[in-house]
Amino acid sequence: MAKAGSLRTTGRALHTSVRLQRAAARGFSESSDRGWFRSLFVHKVEARKDAHSNLLSKRETSSLYKIQFHDVKPECLDAYNSLEAEVQKKLHQDQDFPCEVVGSWNTWYGEQDQAVHLWRYRGGYPALTECLQKLRVNKEYLEFRKERSKMLISRRNQLLLEFSFWNEPLPRRGPNIYELRTYNLKPGTMLEWGNRWARAIKYRQSNNEAVGGFFSQIGDLYVVHHLWAYESLQSREETRNSAWRKEGWDVNVYYTVPLIRSMESRIMIPTESSPLQ
């Protein structure tokens, strides 16, 4: 009898032990699953010892960029383009103004009746300040602003720096269409975005489509703009599809998508006066 009782006790102990092991295994599995699932959405921000503008921008140049978005009254778009082209030409010819237009476009797909301008200030913030001070006392420019204001519904701008690993936007011949892809990132993720794209940009050079890459400094923050050029919408589709056939591109997408809060794509047509055609 004593032996039978001992066997029953041993059996219960073994059964309890197995149950505990199974529960522990389930707990570990669930914890691992939760950890894997959370890793898709929870981003760990590493401490940094310098501003991302110093770590990601081009140190060998001191150019500052300004991007302008002008929403134009539909009936005024042609008159607006003509007026803007005239003023841009005069600023280019006047050596006293340390600024130059990089490109001017009208949005084709995206915000309708919208003009987009990208300016470069060689010399950084001092060049921007010098230019603004001179324009404030330029009677011809003040008249232009007054006339332009009659044509606009709204306007906004941002000051940008260019990523060190992107091509510098230089004049190019057309005809081309341009795509401006705008990414609003989660705060604290700009460095990771830059590190990922420093490797990924090599996958997007085969058709000379990469024009420029920028990140905001003043205006809406944690905003990235990628500017691409294509011969046509069909060329855009083929070029983008070819990137997916290259080993490593999918990894870039996998790791950068969780960094994005929202994104927008504009297809743009260059104006007649734009250096980027």
UniProtKB/TrEMBL annotation:
GO terms for cellular component: mitochondrial matrix. Residues 178-275 form the NIPSNAP domain. PANTHER family: NIPSNAP-RELATED, PROTEIN NIPSNAP HOMOLOG 1. Keywords: Autophagy, Mitochondrion, Transit peptide. It comes from Oryzias javanicus (Javanese ricefish). The keyword Mitochondrion applies. Protein involved in mitophagy. Accumulates on the mitochondria surface in response to mitochondrial depolarization and acts as a 'eat me' signal by recruiting proteins involved in selective autophagy. Gene3D superfamilies: 3.30.70.100. It comes from the Eukaryota. The keyword Transit peptide applies. GO terms for biological process: mitophagy. Its main location: mitochondrion. InterPro entries: Dimeric_a/b-barrel, NIPSNAP, NipSnap_domain. This is NIPSNAP domain-containing protein. Belongs to the NipSnap family. It is found in: Mitochondrion matrix.
